[in-house]
Predict the structure.
Amino acid sequence: MWVTVAIIVVLVCLICGLSKRPRVLPPGPTSYPFIGNVGLFKPSEAPKAHRKLRKIYGDIYSLMIFYKPIIVVHGYHHIRELLAKHGDVFSERPKILPTVAIAKGKGLLWSSGPLWKEQRTFALTTMRKFGFGKRCLESQIMEEVDCLMDELEKYGQEAFDIQSILNTSVSNVICSLLFGKRFHYKDAQFTKLIRLLNEIVSTANASSIEFIFPWLRHLQLSDFRTRMEKTNEVTSFINEMIEDHRNNFDENNINDYIDAFLLEQKQRDNEINTFSDEQLVVSVRDFFGAGTETTSTTLRWALLYLIHYPQWQKILQKDIDDVIGQGQPKMEHRDKLPRVEAFILEIQRVADIVPMNLPHASGEDFVYEGHLFPKGVLVFCILDSVMSDPEAFPEPTKFKPERFLDDNGNCQGEQKNKLIPFSIGRRVCLGESLAKMELFLFFTRFLQKFEIKPEDPECLPSYTEGILGITYSPKPFKLRLLKR
Ligand code: HEM
């Protein structure tokens, strides 16, 4: 009896002790026995809660989630210092649900260490060969944009939700690079996959307990199970695509990312390397997921703001008419359309589509400004803190594309450099150059072809509240696209 009591007391003391914030960590809110800071805010309200916590505890603070510490970093200066200057330390991913249970250390988004380094270099050089950041990709994107415009014209005056068709269209750009093919907007299997992707990204939340404690998946909580089933469906589709490529592989005819990976795999057959079959599946899935949801969500925010700011719609349309007329938009037009560029930048700022960034981890014990970042600690370098920073962007709650224009009307450098929607440092978004091209070409063509109108002029859809998952997206809304 006394032994049992003693064991219980020791266990309770141990658990309570573990949930106490070690002194060497950055300060933070009072950590309660056992739970630490669990329950301090709802995961779905994380960015708002962190804005408040920043006011109390400053730019760098820590939270205890049961026994696990998390360090939260705010502001352009600190994020740049950690992710860019000390990128060698902060380029790892922490051991959380997606790294441990979904990607299992493979792929591009959630991998770490030498595998990530080798695979990121391969992914970048391969995608560059297929046109990332180059003119040749431009015509491929424009083909897709024009298919979309033809499809949209069919709606006439009707109000409709553009999400599904826009997601499919944007996804087709990355599909052409990955699989060497595009899909029809009415392809039932493909549109289902795009819907599943959207559901996975919009319901997963990097601040949730199940994300932080991957072993909770063994409890088979319904949320995790459904998301896993959806992920498996996306994976099966990718497996089919890879199998198809394997069966038709011709090393003298390398058309897409899968072909390039299979060739690399063949050439390195005799050495220990990271080009495994599993790595191929997960990296293709990462590209497919990251390359679909993000750009189309940004475009949907842009359309929503155009509905709310018809005066900007007029200004931009006039600029586009003057510079391009009804001809095809090209990347070379961007410098001649500074107001279009400024509008897109301001959309990226206010839409703030990855507000929490993806989590990073410290690769070693590291001291920064007197605070210890212990090896492996989960670090959130919050991009929302940059987008809403009044020092970087005065009056941050106001929508002001002109903040990116100088006195001569040019899209200016300093403000632009402080805007980091793609993050910064060694893990900066791999698709940044593609995304920037897509945003400019899709957005410009929309304005060239259509007046963007609300479903009901008396009741505009909300642009101040969205849905927070891994990305922050607008609530579903309908619009009318009237041909110009
Ligand atoms: C507007 C569009 C986009 C935004 C705002 C965006 C944003 C981001 C952010 C914030 C990260 C995390 C960086 C970090 O961990 O510090 C990221 C990573 C990544 N993005 Fe994007 N992204 C966009 C489009 C794309 C596209 C089109 C692709 C694919 C072609 C892509 C592929 C990736 C990949 C593979 C990573 C993982 C990089 C790594 O961990 O090394 N993204 N993105």
Observations:
- The chain has 17 helices and ten strands.
- The pocket of protoporphyrin IX containing FE is lined by residues 108-109, 120, 174, 286-287, 290-291, 294-295, 298, 353-354, 357-358, 421-423, 427-431, 434-435 (CB under 6 Å).
- The chain has a mean pLDDT of 92.
